[in-house]
Amino acid sequence: MDPDKSHSDDPEKPFRKVTRKTSSFVQYSAIGFQMLATIGLGVWGGIKLDEWQGNQKPIWTLVLSLVAIGSSLYLFIRSLPKQP
Prior knowledge:
Layout: H1 13-16, H2 20-53, H3 59-79
Helix pairs in contact: 2-3
């Protein structure tokens, strides 16, 4: 008799079951964090470039944040499941 299958009240049993709902939640949470990081890096890079160049108007911040938003939306759309 296998010792792993002999106990019906296994404390790890609820953690072994991964449902489709849980899997999609994890997938979309990861996409959200990826979008947040991409946009955050774009804004941070734009601020640093504006400080380095001494710009009065935040030109690089605007440009890089818009590029980061566009690229994160592009990555989000590509990661969506294909519907037949």
